[in-house]
């Protein structure tokens, strides 16, 4: 096999792509991965949106801003005095950039360790051949490679607001929201999506006045209604201004910021003047430059690559995973699909259970869930039992000084099988995994209720919520 011919070529080096490449290499294939992302010096920056302008840098900023808020508001309760509190935004951003670089470098190391050939540039289809598919790499030096199997993992891009394209100075996507050089006095979010809420939380903690304009009449419509209401109550208390049922009109950008015209839920005209605007109205599949028409690769009406349940496309030996296909746009969903596809290429039975994919919003309080919501169960007519337990009654939460929120279990009324677990509160991004494992193994609420949980721990709230399904909580 020549150095330009591979068993598997992965287009895209984000969470789905780089994991697919590594797993394929582990299975004995000769693998190449193409990714065009560049760092500030023009070098490769593997990890895709998640590592560069998504999950990883946003968590770094969330952690920094949480430290700042604790120092300003919570430390006094612990007897810790802080005088002259200030925020060095440049240093905070530099730390974020370093965290990103560590993750970029880590993937480069993993490619070397697993003997994955890396090509820095944009990958695009050229033609099908007897050896597979010819892929052009457009980078510093243009070249062509051939793969018997192709895995497309090109991710997604932020959806712009019609009539107000991103300039990443005043009108920001997740990219620009991570690079704001100073704390804005007034910040607006259009859309109460995950990215917007997380970045809004960062700048609110640091002193910005944050207003959320959401077109839908409900807040966090995908979240269990009881949990969403609890989260909104916490956000309202923090000073996050959330306006639901609005219709955004013209956005004017000027020297002194932006002016946003909108009609509120009552149909009355309103105007909001802000320094910065974050647009968080969803993401669209990224096939820019992929040249799918050259090989007849089928896309749907959203621009996503059409795949079946096993991530097979309309073409033989061409697969697609992650944000560029159907399903939730989550990094961990992309990773699982990447592993599954590599194993299917090897003749194994890769497995992805969409019913047990966890969701997390890293605000404060955090929001996490897996499985069906109460409103979904009601709509489907399935008989269920519910149990809740508040962090207010959890000893570890009291010691932490954060008793906001609750854990909620939903179980089948007849069999007690866990159908959904929903959480809002401290560190629930870590607690949700227990529910994922339980649901994957078809556990009952009674199973969790009977398992010994460490005391004192936040995880006891999970046990108590499972006990609450049978109306026998011990601490509330």
From TrEMBL:
Cofactor binding, per record: Binds 1 FAD per subunit.
Catalytic activity: N(6)-[(R)-dihydrolipoyl]-L-lysyl-[protein] + NAD(+) = N(6)-[(R)-lipoyl]-L-lysyl-[protein] + NADH + H(+)
Protein's UniProt keywords contain Cytoplasm: yes
Record key words, sorted: Cytoplasm, FAD, Flavoprotein, NAD, Oxidoreductase, Redox-active center
A molecular function GO annotation: dihydrolipoyl dehydrogenase (NADH) activity
Domain of life: Bacteria
Keyword Oxidoreductase set for record: yes
Reported cofactor(s): FAD
UniProt EC number: 1.8.1.4
Domain Pyridine nucleotide-disulphide oxidoreductase dimerisation residue range list: 357-466
Domain FAD/NAD(P)-binding: 6-338
Subcellular location as annotated: Cytoplasm
Enzyme class: oxidoreductase
Family per record: Belongs to the class-I pyridine nucleotide-disulfide oxidoreductase family.
Further remarks about this protein from its record: The active site is a redox-active disulfide bond.
Protein's name in the database: Dihydrolipoyl dehydrogenase
Gene transcribed to yield this protein: lpdA
């Amino acid at each position: 096999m020549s150095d330009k011919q591979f068993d598997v070529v992965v287009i895209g080096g984000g969470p789905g792509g780089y994991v697919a490449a590594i797993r394929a290499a582990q299975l004995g294939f000769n693998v190449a991965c193409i990714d065009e992302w560049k760092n500030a010096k023009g070098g490769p920056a593997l990890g895709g949106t998640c590592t560069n302008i998504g999950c990883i840098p946003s968590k770094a900023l969330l952690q920094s801003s949480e430290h700042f808020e604790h120092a300003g508001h919570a430390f006094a309760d612990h007897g810790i005095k802080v005088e002259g509190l200030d925020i060095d935004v440049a240093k905070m951003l530099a730390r974020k950039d370093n965290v990103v670089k560590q993750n970029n470098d880590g993937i480069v190391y993993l490619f070397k360790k697993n003997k994955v050939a890396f090509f820095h540039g944009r990958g695009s289809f050229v033609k099908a051949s007897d050896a597979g598919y010819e892929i052009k790499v457009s980078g510093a030096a243009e070249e062509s490679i051939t793969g018997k199997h192709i895995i497309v993992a090109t991710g997604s891009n932020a959806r712009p607001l019609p009539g107000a394209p991103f300039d990443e100075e005043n009108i920001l996507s997740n990219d620009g929201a991570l690079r704001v050089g100073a704390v804005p006095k007034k910040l607006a979010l259009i859309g109460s999506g995950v990215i917007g809420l997380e970045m809004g939380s960062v700048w609110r903690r640091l002193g910005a006045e944050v207003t959320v304009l959401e077109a839908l009449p409900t807040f966090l419509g995908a979240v269990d209604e009881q949990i969403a209401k609890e989260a909104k109550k916490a956000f309202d208390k923090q000073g996050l201004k959330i306006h639901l049922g609005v219709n955004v009109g013209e956005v004017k950008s000027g020297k002194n910021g932006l002016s946003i015209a909108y009609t509120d839920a009552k149909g009355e005209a309103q105007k909001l003047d802000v320094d910065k605007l974050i647009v968080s109205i969803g993401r669209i599949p990224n096939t820019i430059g992929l040249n799918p028409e050259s090989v007849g690769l089928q896309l749907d009406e959203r621009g996503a690559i059409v795949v079946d349940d096993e991530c097979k496309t309309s073409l033989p030996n061409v697969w697609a995973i992650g944000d560029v296909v159907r399903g939730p746009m989550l990094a961990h969903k992309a990773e699982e699909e990447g592993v599954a596809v590599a194993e299917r290429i090897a003749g194994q039975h890769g497995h992805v259970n969409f019913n047990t994919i966890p969701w997390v919003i890293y605000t404060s309080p955090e929001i996490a869930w897996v499985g069906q919501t109460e409103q979904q169960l009601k709509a489907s007519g399935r008989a269920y039992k519910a149990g809740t337990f508040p962090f207010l009654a959890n000893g570890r939460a009291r010691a932490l000084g954060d008793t906001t929120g609750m854990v909620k279990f939903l179980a089948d009324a007849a069999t007690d099988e866990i159908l959904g677990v929903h959480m809002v509160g401290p560190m629930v991004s870590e607690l949700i995994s227990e529910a994922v494992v339980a649901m994957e193994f078809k556990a009952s609420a009674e199973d969790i209720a009977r398992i010994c949980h460490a005391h004192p721990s936040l995880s006891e709230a999970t046990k108590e919520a499972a006990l609450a399904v049978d109306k026998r909580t011990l601490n509330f």
